Amino acid sequence: MTELKVLEGKKLTVIGYGSQGHAHTLNLKDLGMDLTVGLREGSKSWEEAEKAGVKVKKISEAVKDADVVMFLTPDEAQPAVYENHVKDNLKEGAYLGFAHGFNIHYKKIVPAGKVNVFMVAPKGPGHMVREIFEKGHGVPCLTAVYQDISGDTKEVADAWANGVGRKVGIIETTFKEETETDLFGEQAVLCGGVTELMQAGFDTLVEAGYNPEVAYFECVHEMKLIIDMVYEKGFAKMRDSISNTAEYGDYVTGKKIITDKTRETMKQVLGDIQNGQFAKEFIDETETGYKFMKGERSKYSDSKIEEVGSKMRQMVFKGSAKNHM
Ligand SMILES: NC(=O)C1=CN([C@@H]2O[C@H](COP(=O)(O)OP(=O)(O)OC[C@H]3O[C@@H](n4cnc5c(N)ncnc54)[C@H](OP(=O)(O)O)[C@@H]3O)[C@@H](O)[C@H]2O)C=CC1
Ligand SMILES: CC[C@](O)(C(C)=O)C(=O)O
Ligand SMILES: [Mg+2]
Ligand SMILES: [Mg+2]
Fold this sequence. Notes:
With about 325 residues, the chain is of the alpha/beta class. The protein is about 55% helix and about 10% strand. The chain has helices at about 20-30, 45-50, 60-65, 80-85, 100-105, 125-135, 155-165, 175-190, 190-205, 210-240, 245-255, 260-275, 275-285, 290-300, 305-315, and strands at about 10-15, 35-40, 55-60, 70, 95-100, 115-120, 140-145, 170. The protein has an eight-stranded mixed sheet. Strand 5 (about 95-100), helix 5 (about 100-105) and strand 6 (about 115-120) form a beta-alpha-beta unit. This is Ketol-acid reductoisomerase (NADP(+)).
C-alpha cells in the first residue's frame, strides 16, 4: 500500500487500547507497521494488548522518541493525560493525532507549537472498524490538520486513515466541522435519536397489549435489516424492497413522528454543541464521577427491552450471540 510509505520507518505510538485504540493498532499492525501502545501500568487493556502481540509501554515512555502519537483515550481523560504524560515527552516535529476534535476544538488541550496536530476520525465504532477491516473492507475516515510545522502533516493523516480504513475513502474536514457534526450525529440521530425511537415504538406496542417479543422484532431487531439496505443501496432501493403498503406508511407517518418541533429541537441541540454548552455539561458530568450516566446505564440494563432483546438474540444467534466488545 504505497500511501502508507510516509509512515514507514517512523516510530508510531497509540495511546489507549479501547474501542478505537485496538482497531487503529491492530489494523496498522496487520499492514506491517511497527507500533507501540502507551497505557497505564497494570490495567486490563495492558493485558489485552500484550495478548494480541502488541508492544506496550507506560504512556510517557511510549511518547518519548515517537514520531507519530495517536491519542485514543476517552475524550474526558485526554487533558490530564496530555498534561501529565504527553506534553513534555513529545519531541519537536512529532505528529499528534486525534480521532475526534473535542479537546482541540473546545481548547481543553492547547498543543505545544513545536508539534504537528492532525485528526483521523473513522466514521464508525472502533469494534466495527476492526471487524470490517478483518473482512477485507474498510470504514471511511475524516481527516483534518490543525497545526502543520513540518509541511507534510496532511500526508501523515492520509496515510494513517488509509491504513486504519483500508483506503475506502477519506473526506477532508476541519476540527470544528468534525467535532460539531460528530456530536450532533451521535446525539440526535445515530445513538440518542435511534434508541429513543426504538424504545418509544416498543413501549407503544407493549403498552397496547402486544407480545413484547413481537414488539422487539418489529421495532429493534428489524432495524438492522432495513438500515443495511440503506447503507448498501440508499433510501430508494430500500423503499423498492419493502411493500407498497410499508412505503405509503413510511411517507405518511414518518413526518408525523419527526415533526417540525423535532426539527426545531435538533437546531437547539446543534446550537448547544456550537456554543460549547454541551461540552461544559459533559465535563461537569464526568466531574461528578458520571453520576447521571451510571443511573441511566443501570436503568437501561434492567429494562424490559433489554430483557426481551437478550432472549431474542439467543434465539436468532442460536446461543452464540454476536459480541463485538
Ligand atoms: N468509540 C468509538 O468508536 C469512537 C471514538 N472516537 C474517539 O476516539 C477516542 C477514543 O475513544 P474510545 O476508543 O471510545 O475510548 P475508550 O473508552 O474505548 O478508551 C479506553 C482506553 O483508554 C484508556 N484510558 C482510559 N482512561 C485513561 C486515563 N485516565 N489514563 C490513561 N489511559 C486511560 C484505557 O486504559 P485502562 O485499561 O487503563 O482504563 C483504554 O485503553 C475519543 O477521542 C473518541 O471521541 C472517534 C470515533 C469513534
Ligand atoms: C456514533 C458515536 C461515535 O461518534 C462513533 C462511533 O462514531 C462515538 O463517539 O463513539
Ligand atoms: Mg462518530
Ligand atoms: Mg463521537
